[in-house]
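Q: How do we represent a protein-ligand complex in a form that can be generated token by token?
A: Start from the inputs.
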Amino acid sequence: MRSLAVFVSGNGSNFEAIAEGCRSGAIANCEVVLCVCDKPGAKVLERAKRLGVKTFVFSPKDYASKADYEREIADVMDSLGVDLVCLAGYMRIVGEELLGRYEGKIVNIHPSLLPAFPGANAIREAFEYGVKVYGVTIHEVNATLDGGRILSQVAVPYEGDDFDELVAEIHKAEHKLYVETISKILA
Ligand code: GRF
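Then emit the structure tokens for the protein with 5-O-phosphono-beta-D-ribofuranosylamine bound:
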């Protein structure tokens, strides 16, 4: 049995898709053993409770440094035997402590075809730019924002003008791609 930790700052729809993927067997022999969240009160915590997933919730301001909270997170992950860390809407740059202790085992999902539109407002920026093909990227995590070797991508063609509809389509593509990609990584 493989163990995943999923890091989330807000909503957690990708977290839920991954947890359901494990439950359904779409990701074989795997379990989400931990949800790490840096925002007490985030919606993902309701999802984690409903799905029976253990949480580690913290406020960065309660720690003297990033290394301090990352050390605590890594200790919890070590104790649970985490094999792979999946960032899913985790709005922080991962620091040296976590990168060092989970080297080559941290992946992230980003709602654009990287290297186009890195950063926190990718969908909005692509929409305002007027692109006709949007997309989703899953990549290894290193010290650069949305950098790291690309593991998988999918294009999401959209020529409409309804931003909410576009966001919904991108999220649907994200959930599918993340489950497929985790499955491939673990195989
Ligand atoms: C997703 O669009 C993901 O690509 C980005 O943050 C969003 C998280 O959505 N990094 P959710 O919390 O999984 O619903």
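The chain has one domain: 2-186. The helical segments are 13-24, 43-51, 66-80, 96-101, 122-129, 163-186.
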